[in-house]
Specification:
By secondary structure, the protein is mainly alpha-helical. It is built from nine helices and three strands; from the N terminus they run αααβββαααααα. Helix 7 packs antiparallel against helix 8. One of its GO terms (molecular function) is transcription cis-regulatory region binding.
Length: 240
Amino acid sequence: MPYSRNPKQEQERAPEVRCSRERSRAAWKVIEEYLTPFVEKENYQLSKKCRLHLENDMFRDQEEHKIYLDRNEWQCGYCKKSFREEKFIDQHLDNRHYNLLDLSHGKCLADLCGALHCDAVMNSKSSRSKCNPAAAARNRHLCESLADSCFPISEGPSASRLHELFLHQFCDAHTCSGKHKPFSRGGKDQGSFFRLAAGALILVLLPVFYLFLYLIQSDMKGRNQELRRISRAGWKAKPS
């Protein structure tokens, strides 16, 4: 299948969408890695009114129709056209499949990046710039409003626990004191890392454990044989 080398040559042009696909993707990555595992653990269903719900991401359907085949090949799930880089398939989706975007109010996940610390996962310069107290206060207010709307304490123990977790995981870090870091409760990748590390440690220690048992058994066997020799020698030494 031929590659689309120059997406700019496509004839159709989309109307301007005032929402960053890249930052929306970063926000979704944060949600998937640092919130979803806890929500699933609590078996909690996010309301569609919650702005963190997957249906409130205008790019979600398009992103799920981007097929990664290998390092140099992406394929559009709508029309099967192939591209060498992700940025080219993004341009293609913007130009040819913009009609599939839901441009309803409140569907831009990028608008939540301030609350969700997108810059931390994007490794952008703004995450390392000098802290602005006013911006930190605005982001904290947005963050706390997300906690209140997505995990209302009145809905029960699960919602209450997730409300508290959300505050610790995201909101507490919106300060210029530097005392709190975002994602302090860990996430999906961290859990996988610890499981992998534990598995590797077991694989390393298991042979050592069996070697230790073997040495102990060998030592005990040697001692028993020595005791038997001493015992036999003692019987032979007795007068008849």
